[in-house]
User: Which sequence fits this backbone?
């Protein structure tokens, strides 16, 4: 086969001429003589030479040493560009760009991708804006923007909520009264729920450790040398189980198994409940309402309103979803009872036939007021007015109106001077909360015209731990802490150190009556806690000194 452009012989199957790069699709076989002449010339050139090969930098195909173009893809092999005719032929016949043309094509592709990405982002922005432009979107946007700005003490207390949302956390306390100390911890993880209690009272010490671990109950004390266990998955036919009602035993077994099962995932529960609420909210119709005037930031403002009506069907439908989500996390016997109670409640809601109108009034994309009206109670209306200040929730007034007259009112205001933040609640009972954002000192004063209460303590927090230490506690001017010499600290922290149990295992589900009698005798002899207790006729009788 020969090239019809330069006459060079091309190996069988070659797509391009190795001499000029011409594509070989439309090449017709030359005459036998021409083939012979050209073939002889090629043979003369190659006689007595070791033929070297070149590899194409574009497709990797092996070529002869004298080839200037790749026989497979037409790429120049000696660093030179195409001649004008060859380049044009290659582009027109094959459409494969090389060299500078290839770089231009890559740049074009990158540009197209970038433009597509910008278009997608623009569509997302348009979609979000279109949602925000709807009454529902405007209300959701305003609620989120208003709730985002809160007093600093509220923001700092969010640490506690964040810790409780973790899979592993510890909640504990320590208390001292006139030299006697009591402390405890609740340790939580997905498969372990453990409680530890320690007491040192009148020089007597007691350490108790108990919990549910992968559905198995365990309990131990410092000087008992026993680990009491109960496994609901076993055939529990011992003395204790025989004396329990069948239903009570089934409920106990179901409760233990569900406490540390995957179904008891609080995060998943919260997520599903929130999702159900959002789904129900999508069925509600938000309509524009009459513009009303409210005080915002010290001035009367014209505020646009958006009204939504909630009826018994909406509430019943959401309660059905709550019931289904909650029930599937319960043991079978408890689930049936819970489901029956939820059905009764839902029927009562459906029979109530009520309409609740909620109107959201907005000013500068934040809440100015929210009103609640129920037709069942005449012309009764609750109004929550966000009067603002430095932020919209700084001053809030809650009012109860009847026929346009105010029948009750509560004012919540927040002020800050330096590092000290003061929250005042004025109603039938007054309350003042003071929080020093630097030192963590928190105090609360309460007065309902019948009694007065004052509490003070120190709140400390970090990303992984929060604690409150009680410093003062007064009721009607009398200090409860000074008289009794009391100190108390409550804390919560991320992580849970599950303690191991040590001692001889005692199977509460399988032990017979004789086993319990031997246990009591052993505990009476070896534990100070049980030395005054005795066992008779299959029952605990109580303290000896009550009878003897």
Assistant:
């Amino acid at each position: 086969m020969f090239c019809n452009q330069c006459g060079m012989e091309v190996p069988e199957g070659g797509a391009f001429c190795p001499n000029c790069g011409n594509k070989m699709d439309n090449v017709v076989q030359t005459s036998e003589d021409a083939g012979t002449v050209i073939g002889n010339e090629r043979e003369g050139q190659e006689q007595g030479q070791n033929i070297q090969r070149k590899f194409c930098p574009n497709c990797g195909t092996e070529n002869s040493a004298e080839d200037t173009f790749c026989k497979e893809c037409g790429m120049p092999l000696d660093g030179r560009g195409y001649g004008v005719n060859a380049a044009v032929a290659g582009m027109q016949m094959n459409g494969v760009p090389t060299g500078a043309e290839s770089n231009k094509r890559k740049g074009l592709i990158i540009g197209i991708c970038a433009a597509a990405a910008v278009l997608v982002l623009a569509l997302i922005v348009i979609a979000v804006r279109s949602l925000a432009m709807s009454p529902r979107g405007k209300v959701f946007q305003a609620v989120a923007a208003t709730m985002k700005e809160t007093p600093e003490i509220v923001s700092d207390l969010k640490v506690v909520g964040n810790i409780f949302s973790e899979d592993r956390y510890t909640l504990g306390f320590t208390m001292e009264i006139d030299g006697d100390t009591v402390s405890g911890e609740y340790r939580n993880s997905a498969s372990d729920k453990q409680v530890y209690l320690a007491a040192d009272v009148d020089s007597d010490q007691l350490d108790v450790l108990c919990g549910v671990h992968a559905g198995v109950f365990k309990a131990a004390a410092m000087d008992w040398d026993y680990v009491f266990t109960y496994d609901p998955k076993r055939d529990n036919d011992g003395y204790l189980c025989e004396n329990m009602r069948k239903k009570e035993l089934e409920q106990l077994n179901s409760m233990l198994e569900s406490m540390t099962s995957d179904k008891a995932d609080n995060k998943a529960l919260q997520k599903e409940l929130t999702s159900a609420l959002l789904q129900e909210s999508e069925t509600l119709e938000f309509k524009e309402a009459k513009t009303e005037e409210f005080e915002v930031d010290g001035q009367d403002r014209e505020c646009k309103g958006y009204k939504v009506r909630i009826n018994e069907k909406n509430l019943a439908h959401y309660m059905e979803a709550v019931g289904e989500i909650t029930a599937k996390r319960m043991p079978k016997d408890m689930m049936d009872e819970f489901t029956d109670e939820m059905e009764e409640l839902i029927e009562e809601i459906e029979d109530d036939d009520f309409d609740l109108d909620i109107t959201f009034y907005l000013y500068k994309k934040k809440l100015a007021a929210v009103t609640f009206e129920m037709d069942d109670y005449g012309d009764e209306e609750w109004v929550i007015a966000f009067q603002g200040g430095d932020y919209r929730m700084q001053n809030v007034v809650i009012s109860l109106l009847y026929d346009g007259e105010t029948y009750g009112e509560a004012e919540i205001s927040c002020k800050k001077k330096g590092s000290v933040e003061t929250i005042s609640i004025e109603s039938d009972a007054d309350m003042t909360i003071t929080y020093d954002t630097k030192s963590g000192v928190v105090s609360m004063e309460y007065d309902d015209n019948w009694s007065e209460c004052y509490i003070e303590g120190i709140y400390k927090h970090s990303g992984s731990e929060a604690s409150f230490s009680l410093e003062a506690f007064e009721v009607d001017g009398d200090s409860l802490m000074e008289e009794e010499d009391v100190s108390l600290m409550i804390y919560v922290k991320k992580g849970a150190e599950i303690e191991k149990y040590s001692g001889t295992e005692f199977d509460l589900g399988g032990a017979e009556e004789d086993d319990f009698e031997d246990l009591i005798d052993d505990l009476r002899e070896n534990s100070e806690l049980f030395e005054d207790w005795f066992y008779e006729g299959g029952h605990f009788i109580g303290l000896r000194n009550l009878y003897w």
Notes: The CA atoms of residues 198 and 207 lie 4 Å apart. The first strand starts at residue 53 and ends at 55.
